[in-house]
Amino acid sequence: MISLGLAVTTFTAQNFGARQYKRMLIGLKHAVIIDVIWGIVFAAILITFNKFFSGLFISHNETKIIHLAFEYYLVNGLFYWILAILFVVRAFIQGYGNSLVPTLAGMAELVMRAGVSVLSLVTVGLIGVLFSSPAAWIGSVIILVPSYFKITKDLRGRKDGDVNDDKALNEELDDALKII
């Protein structure tokens, strides 16, 4: 899933530079669909064959550990589709040239993961800790969503290859340089 996200960053940046805005949106849509499907398929495989995968690293005699591994696979696997969206949307925003929002999303992910883990240990126990990664993914996606909608709205308003976009691009670059 992460590899497709990395490819989306390059794809987005190249097509933005070439002023192929519609292609960016089509690529984003296809990448999300592919990655979400892959996340669901991978989760189904992982959950279905959990004992096999656990057995690669853990003795089959360790039934309690294998059961804990199954719980981990189940909880995380059910949310892999959100992780897929996270990877693709974050990469799209980075490829568009916005590094601030993905950085904030990454920070939110870290805070959510740590916060949910600590709070869960003292309240609901281990099962809550298992939800720390999915909670982090959801928190990160929530940070990315406003930028996603703003960028896609902007791209829908542009015409492919439109030289008039140079003025808007120069304004964006000027704004970015003000931050530095």
From TrEMBL:
* Keywords, sorted A to Z: Cell membrane, Membrane, Transmembrane, Transmembrane helix, Transport
Name the principal localization, coarsely classed.
Answer: membrane
Membrane-protein topology: Multi-pass membrane protein
Q: Which InterPro entries match?
A: MATE_fam, Membrane_Transporter-Flippase
Q: Which GO terms describe its cellular component?
A: plasma membrane
Tell me the superkingdom of the source.
Answer: Bacteria
List, alphabetically, the Pfam families matched.
Answer: MatE
Q: Where in the cell is it found?
A: Cell membrane
Question: Recorded GO terms, molecular function?
Answer: antiporter activity; xenobiotic transmembrane transporter activity
- Residue spans crossing the bilayer: 28-49, 70-96, 116-149
User: What is the official name of this protein in its record?
Assistant: Uncharacterized protein
